[in-house]
Amino acid sequence: MKLRDELPVDHRLSQVYRFGGGAVGVFLLVFGILGLVDTVKFFGTTGKDVAGLSTNGALSTLSIVVGLILVTGAVRGGNFASTLNIVIGIGFVLSGFVHTALIGRGNNPLGFHMSNVIFSFAVGVALLAFGMYGRVGSALPHDNPYWRSRHPRRAAHEDAVRQRQHTGAPGGATRGAGGTGTPGSTVGAH
């Protein structure tokens, strides 16, 4: 499956994907580095607190890797960053569910506590929101590149109507004193 990039390089949505994923990535990097500097056991099941969250060497290392991936996505931007935020967000939410069952057991390889589970859910939902922002929804504006990609015939028709209105060609309404045929306005039924 090839990821098509309908999003223009300088589109404002790219900034949401970049800053959202990048901020989470930087936090994970700092958290992971602080965990490793504190020389915690690699697979300790009790964990050691860093920034209010329990960690061990494995979780610190995993946090650094995921943080680097998110920062790389932020640098790249576009659909890549959006899709990456969605995929990693799903991973965080699933991790929250799995580790809820592992808390208090000897089989807790990442040393999660309830604060980690809550953090995992919160970060997962935030990354999903950043990744899906302006990309998924039933009421996307018609100038949105994702809407246009999903409705190419309707987008082409709206462009043609707008062009006729702009040039005053027959078949299109000309702009007058009270006209609404401004470029970028939404034309057609919703």
TrEMBL record:
This protein's name:
DUF4383 domain-containing protein
Q: Which UniProt keywords apply?
A: Membrane, Transmembrane, Transmembrane helix
Which superkingdom? Bacteria
Q: Where is the composition biased (Gly residues)?
A: 169-182
Segments spanning the bilayer are 16-37, 57-75, 82-104, 110-130
Region feature Disordered, mapped onto this chain:
147-190
